[in-house]
Amino acid sequence: MEKQLDPMKDDLPLMANTSHMLVKHYTLDLDVDFKSQIIEGIIVFFFETGSRYRKNSSTDEEGCQSQFDETCKIRASEPCHIPVTDLSACSSTMEYNDFAVCGKGEKDTSDKNGNHSNGEQASGIPSSKNCCDIENHGSTDFLLVLDCCDLSVLKVEEVDVAAVADTEKFARSAKLTDASEELGNLRNQIVHELVTLPADRWKEQLYYYTRCSQAPGCGELLFTTGTWSLEIRKLGIRTPRDFPHAIRIWYKTKPEGRSVTWTTDQSGRPCVYTMGSPINNRALFPCQEPPVALSTWQATVRTAARFVVLMSGENSAEPVQLQEGILSWYYYVTMPMPASTFTIAIGCWEEVKQQPFTADVQTNSDFSLPFSQADLRWHEERCGHVEYPCRFQNPAARLQTVIPYRVFAPWCLMENCKELVLQLIPQCLSAAYTTLGTHPFSRLDVLIVPSNFSSLGMASPHIIFLSQSVLPGGQHLCGARLCHEIAHAWFGLAIGARDWTEEWISEGFATYLEDIFWARAQQLSHDEVKGQQELKALLRWRRLRDEVQNSEEELQVLRPNKENTGEVSESGASVVKHGLKAEKIFLQVHYLKGYFLLRSLARAIGEASYLASLRKFVHKFHGQLVLSQDFLYMLLEDIPEQKESGLTVESIFQNWLDTSGMPKLLPDQLVLLLESLLEKKTLCPRTLQCLEKTYKLREQDAEVRHRWCELIVKHKYVPGYGDVEKFLREDQAMGVYLYGELMVNEDAKQQELAYKCFAAAQEHMDVSSAKVVAEMLF
Fold this sequence. Notes:
It is a single chain. The protein is of the alpha+beta class. Helix 6 (373-380) runs parallel beside helix 14 and helix 19 packs across helix 20 (721-730).
């Protein structure tokens, strides 16, 4: 039985067996009905055999058995039957740049719950039978597991890609054997050759994906749906290598599905959008959720003519009228991304047009950080990701300071966006380019989403959602938030976390870079930058302190899986620890703790060197999934002298990533923190009390305690006067100038403390020190 999880408390299961079969491309063909609040359509998967079976095909059958054993323990309990209908193949002649889309003629014969009710039981998988079905079939059938939730699956079938004209050229190297297996091997060979076409043939690849997705079916597949998964098998097929590598699924969403929100915009008009659900997109389409399932996609969406369809796609789609009142929109992506990053927003959005003139985006030498010769050498090296049309290898893209952008909003917010968002975007994009270099994505749409959006912003490939809350009150909040979301293009999207529990890799970097981008976008002076960033650091420190005091300890750990981070089961399935805890959505620990880690590293290394290391990291790891250690090892290799101060990957794990509570700083880091706090005009007693308690300042070395005493004196923190007295008595080599600080405030209690300490220590003080202190006091 599939494990039942408490959706308010437990971990998010990633059920897909990606080690056995790995999706490489999705083709979606969808109809959106606002009246019923249902998205209905077809999705075609193009698979590769998983890594376990590509390496050693001779062990397929033995390997499959262990996967079956695992899957049988958690299999679904809800049978779903198959309507016996056929897809009429589209016949059209298309060029590579002309992707025709076939309409659907399927008749919906399901009841309101999505279960087939045509009075004829088709070959679904009975819930009472073992999923491996050894007794009935004499062998164990391979089971493909997809992530799926809140969907009505109507039919699953194999796609006959061999029926598509000209695809035989993809199968010239196929070694076909007996007739019973010949066609299956041929189809899988065609899919393999298609998904592995070189990057410079991406247009041809998209063309054939479209053609193959419209090919006729060649046999229905058995399936069953559960709370979290869709399980599919083909009778007699025992290994992933022999399982169909192109399958088609008919399905429809449910109005209560948790991946999309049906609502109205600020102008009262209906809309639907993906709002960053904890369950990601599995209630929008069946998919492989684990981040390792990096795939491309293309999608055709049909809806009423008054609606605009925005999506994570490389192209700025132009609608095509299919019939009166119905428009079709087509988007595609050629950079492999996790399915969770797929984003769609459909509404009566209005495009905010540019003014007749555009403000000049400054990129002078004061504003820009020149790239070094090392930066140029990196661009000459080959990328480390799987092959795709990469902008980092495109000379024109590497020089593109500001990528093309558009802004959309409900009509009632058009003027606000024209005066604010439209003007800020080029400044923020230019600042990001100045800091990190090549933009990973070719264009950007920014959409002001409905007021029920639960965040200030969300970044996806080629599109950013912004809350209306960033619009009032001037540029600061809007500009800073834009910079944060733009930073996700590099950290979170182009570079993703291999283990989703390591959210700090995305959010910590975006929070840190937000300040860098925004300061450069405003073209602030050095002193203005320092003042703004120190103030933000103080505000974030207070927010982090409050969250640590008022949240569960287990939610404060940035690497909750610790040494097991990145590990998955034999099948590729895993869980996202605490992924379904409702309160986790609103916590900012991963943002703030990650930010302070990166800030401390930057201050230890020096900002210029640190940003150079970030650019190196981006160039080395874009298009890939990483773990914390990938960044930390690379950074520390560049600065080996830091090891002498105790800064190692292991110490960072121990003090920052693997523990709850406030970070345990190294002495030098504590000194930097306290010195930054010394620049603040006021700190309340409660803040100072929490500071001492959190970092156990009384137990630190003399350098740290000296700064602590300075804070006590500056802010007249009476409960800490005992610490000052002890320091002046026991650390005379460092305490001389504290006497002066006690006197300069002209505070009676502090001056009394200075006289008292000097009287007690004078007899034993060094003659020169005693003379200097006496001059301060008398």
